[in-house]
Amino acid sequence: MRAMVFEGVGRPLRAVRRDVPQAGPGQLLLRVEACGICRTDLHLLDGEVPITDPPRILGHQIVGIVQPGGERVGVPWLGWTCGQCRYCTSGRENLCERARFTGRDIDGGFAEYAVADERFCFAIPAEWPPERAAPLLCAGLIGYRALRMCGDAQRLGLYGFGAAAHIIAQVARWQGCDVYAFTRPGDEPAQALARELGAVWAGSSEQRPPEPLDAAIIFAPDGALVPVALDAVAAGATVVCGGIHMSDIPAFAYERLWHERVLRSVANLTRADGTEFLALAPRVPVRTHVTTYPLEAANEALDDLRRGRLTGAGVIVI
Ligand SMILES: [Zn+2]
Ligand SMILES: [Zn+2]
After folding, report:
1. Could you report the per-residue pLDDT of 146-159, keeping only the tens digit for each?
2. Neighbouring-strand partners of residue 258
3. Over the stretch 264-308, which tens digit does the pLDDT of each residue have?
4. Which ligand does the CA of 87 lie closest to?
5. Cα(226) to centroid of ligand 2, in Å?
6. In terms of DSSP bridges, do strands 213-218 and 155-159 run parallel, antiparallel, or are they unpaired?
């Protein structure tokens, strides 16, 4: 099969030919149809999130067809948990001490075939186009977990309007929230997409919102946005850091956190998050805006994501 393989930090993915993997007990062999790209892939390429045993096939938003069988399933970032640690036994498998992640510890979906633990796969309705479903599996699902951390906020700020935010904006709108979208200065296409998806306000992250927000999610990997978001929210509000890695957060006066503002991160997903979100997405209904790339263009896709040339979500179609 054809695959795009990570071989080391700072090097582009390499196109290789490999044997089709074999499914072991409890695993599914999938013919990959589509696999979303994610900012986490950039952190893996750059070594900010380590891959301990390269070579590794990246890609953790896989949609594929079970071989044989024909059922369409999705594979998320959470690929395996121990089921025994104090997190697994308390409904927090997202924090499992021995968790293994798709496209980091387990070969992922930038390939024609992939093998996945069937307990961690989700059913994907057959009528959903695979490239439109793929971004739901990380951007959507972990974004949804971050949205839940915002409680019943009426005015919700989203910092970084990419794959996750464009999905979560639709869910938040459907829940009756007013969405405020903050993009890189000058990113008109992202601001236009935010308005098209129903944001009441869209502007640059250097701007203050017209009203104080009840909650904010920071999807951009920029720690400097933490004090900025704290300044944009009202007393008692929560600021959620939605990514796996961020640049350092600059020191800031305690006053910016004062009045019961809460600052927290969101890590990974549980299978319950996936089941809940994938049942909710068609009811909204969530429509993903995707740019597709062939497998061999995975490096170009990731470079477009890095340089902010993508609006919505990028997806490799195989
Ligand atoms: Zn991801
Ligand atoms: Zn565990």
Report:
1. 999 999 999 999 99
2. none
3. 999 999 999 999 999 999 999 999 999 999 999 999 999 999 999
4. 2
5. 30
6. parallel
Tokens (6 digits) for 266: 């969101």
Query: What topology does CATH give the domain 142-265?
Result: Rossmann fold (3.40.50)
* Cα–Cα distance for residue pair 77/57, rounded to 1 Å: 13
Ligand minimally distant from the alpha carbon of residue 141: 1
> Which residues are within 5 Å of ligand 2 (an ion), measured at CB?
81-82, 85, 88, 96
Question: Is residue 73 a contact partner of residue 67, using CB atoms and an 8 Å limit?
Answer: no
75: tokens are 């594979």
Fold observed for domain 2-138+269-317: Quinone Oxidoreductase; Chain A, domain 1 (3.90.180)
Q: How confident is the model at residue 58 (pLDDT cuts 50, 70, 90)?
A: very high
Distance from the alpha carbon of residue 260 to the mean position of ligand 1, in angstroms: 30
Alpha carbon distance 128, 71 (integer Å):
12
Distance (Å) from CA 140 to ligand 1 centroid: 9
Beta bridge partners of 157: 180, 216
Ligand 1 centre distance from Cα of residue 235 (Å): 31
DSSP-based three-state secondary structure for 143:
helix
The ligand with the least distance to the CA atom of 43 is: 1
- The pTM score is 0.96
CA dist 43 to 38, 130, 313, Å?
9, 25, 17
Q: Phi and psi (nearest 5°) for 268?
A: 60, -150
Residues 6 or more apart whose Cβ sits within 8 Å of residue 119 = 26, 271
Q: How many angstroms separate the CA atoms of 243 and 157, rounded?
A: 15
The strands making up 56-57's β-sheet, listed across from edge to edge, are 14-17, 2-6, 56-57
pLDDT digits (tens, 9 = 90+) for 100-122: 999 999 999 999 999 999 999 99
Dump pLDDT digits (tens) for 186-220: 999 999 999 999 999 999 999 999 999 999 999 99
